[in-house]
Amino acid sequence: MKISAKLGAIGILAVFGAGIAIAQDNVDPAVKARKALMQLYAYNLGQLGSMAKEESPYDAEAAGNAAANLAALSMLDQSTMWPAGTDSDSMEGSRALPKIWDNIDDVIMKAGALNEAAVAMEAAAGTDLAALQGAIGPVGEACGACHKAYRQPNDQ
User: Fold this and answer.
1) Which long-range contacts (CB under 8 A, 24 or more apart) does 91-95 make?
2) What's 36's DSSP letter?
3) Is it the case that residue 148 has pLDDT exceeding 90?
4) Which of 5, 97, 135, 140 has the fewest CB atoms nearer than 10 Å to its CB?
């Protein structure tokens, strides 16, 4: 299946799946969407990280697919996923610190760095294990830069 067909199928599933999930409870759909996005990042990074750390065998096709997913995810317009009043001080279940909304230019810069690292990962991941290992660090650094500054730690 071509990448564009895969992305189209994923998009359709996301739209219908999100509609069903939203109907099931009263959680803000924007918060649900951003949490789902973060879970998709984590899922794909988990696959790549496992291969990079040699905890699972390197698979060029799987690595390439996971990296393509990360690149696609990093290009999504998230602007509607972060409405005011959905921070950790305003609602239960949010780990987004209120200072996100005070530093939006920095958040956008960090999102751009993630996109650049994800695109580089996409180019490298399916090449060989060494290329994957070389490209994963900047992705982790980009994720961590935003999380350290703008995400409430788990222990709170």
Assistant:
1) 91/28, 91/31, 93/27, 93/31, 94/31, 94/152, 95/151, 95/152, 95/154
2) H
3) yes
4) 5
CB neighbour list of residue 48: distance below 8 Å, 6 or more residues apart: 63, 66, 67, 70, 121, 125, 132, 136, 139
Residue 62 — φ and ψ, nearest 5°? -65, -40
Instruction: Output the pLDDT for position 20.
Output: 46
pLDDT-derived band at 156, boundaries 50, 70, 90: low
What are the φ and ψ backbone dihedral angles of 151, each rounded to 5 degrees? -120, 130
Concatenated DSSP letters of 4-32: HHHHHHHHHHHHHHHHHHHHHS-S-HHHH
- Which pLDDT score is estimated for 91? 92
Q: State if pTM tops 0.70.
A: yes
**What is the token pair recorded at 9?**
């199928």
**Who's near 76: CB < 8 A, 6+ residues apart?**
37
Distance CA(63)–CA(54), nearest Å, equals: 12
The answer to whether the CB of 101 falls within 8 A of the CB of 84 is yes
pLDDT, one tens digit per residue, over 25-70 is 678 999 999 999 999 999 999 999 999 999 999 999 999 999 999 9
